[in-house]
Amino acid sequence: MGLPWYRVHTVVLNDPGRLLSVHIMHTALVAGWAGSMALYELAVFDPSDPLQGVAGAHIVFSGLCFLAAIWHWVYWDLEIFCDERTGKPYLDLPKIFGIHLFLSGVACFGFGAFHVTGLYGPGIWVSDPYGLTGKVQPVNPAWGMEASHHIAAGTLGILAGLFHLSVRLPQRLYKGLRMGNIETVLSSSIAAVFFAAFVVAGTMWYGSATTPIELFGPTRYQWDQGYFQQEIYRRVSAGLAENQSLSEAWSKIPEKLAFYDYIGNNPAKGGLFRAGSMDNGDGIAVGWLGHPIFRDKDGRKLFVRRMPTFFETFPVVLVDGDGIVRADVPFRRAESKYNVEQVGVTVEFYGGKLNGVSYSDPATVKKYARRAQLGEIFELDRATLKSDGVFHSSPRGWFTFGHASFALLFFFGRIWHGARTLFRDVFAGIDPDLDAQVEFGAFQKLGDPTTRRQVV
């Protein structure tokens, strides 16, 4: 049967054994890809991360699924897939739905009751609001976001699965929703996938409750609102209140917290079409240089206005505590009453590698003023990965873009296949419940009252 590449899946429509086979092979490909990419990331980034076991388990599982898929492709004609009354291949789709719902409920409940609670497993990722203390640890069940949502959802899935296994649908509903058609299953499955993809794209982009900062990076809104900057200033103020010097207070700021307060970690900074990881953009962060504090010749403390998210270039403007512009770095080489040379701006670092170092050279002051636009200043290694020095989006941005894009495609797939299965008779032009045999070609049209009919 000669079929175009986009139609080849139709060969398994009425073949339950091989339909199962291609699903197992799909699982093998997904698991194998996940395991292989985990090993690749280990080799490229940090080989000391304890991911070898996880990667190996996925690759072994992929191999077993590959063998199972081949077995089911060869031995497709199993008795379990045949109707006892007719002896023909047949799938009891409502019962299969109940089985899947029950098993997924058991898996969900098991994850919440055993893995998350630490009863049989390591627990779940737990952190603080600023992503500093994240680690995997057991969590006691509680009615909230901590652990019990898996237990509750799993319980609901188990009960729903048992319901669908024990209760048969009314014939009218079964026929009305085309539940005997495998394309209905495809349409419903696509709906579930696109809904899940939209949900995770939203939770990834708009917050970090389900997507820890340590693992995916900060959100763009944390940069826009100065979330980490405010926490840093709060800690410094608390240190000064305890009679610490400015240098001591800044030296106690965790480097991780300072790194979050760097625009390069903003997932919206850098175009999505700049292919490659963040490290290929601004480079590998080697260390925090410290917090720069600028002063003019009158001793006023100056603050550099930070670059908004969607700007590639932004004027370097230094303001005082009242928001009044006191100095700038003009775009053009023109005389300016606010230029660094005339205002006599100096910079001194607190905390980090340059703790206690000060500069008064205008060229150096301008350099650090430009870098202060981007948040805390870090030493970046661009040589190792041949980084291009241009911002790239973070894993949070790539995840959101990928899942939102595929969710949109799957949404249209849901509409397409849902319409095909609901209006199959309209598209085919023949009523599926037609029980009369008509001599085609001999009369004007189907439904002509003069056409001789022979009941099948």
From TrEMBL:
**GO molecular function list:** chlorophyll binding
Source species, domain of life:
Eukaryota
Q: Where mainly located?
A: membrane
Example of a GO cellular component annotation carried by this entry: plastid
- Membrane-topology annotation of the record: Multi-pass membrane protein
Q: Which organism is it from?
A: Gossypium darwinii
Q: Name one GO biological process term.
A: photosynthetic electron transport in photosystem II
* Secreted listed as a keyword: no
The question of whether Transmembrane helix is a record keyword is answered with yes
Q: Which InterPro entries match?
A: PS_antenna-like, PS_II_antenna-like_sf, PSII_PsbB
Residue intervals passing through the bilayer: 20-43, 55-76, 97-120, 147-165, 185-206
| Localization of this protein | Membrane; Plastid
Name of this chain's protein: Photosystem II CP47 reaction center protein
- Give UniProt keywords alphabetically: Chlorophyll, Chromophore, Membrane, Photosynthesis, Photosystem II, Plastid, Transmembrane, Transmembrane helix
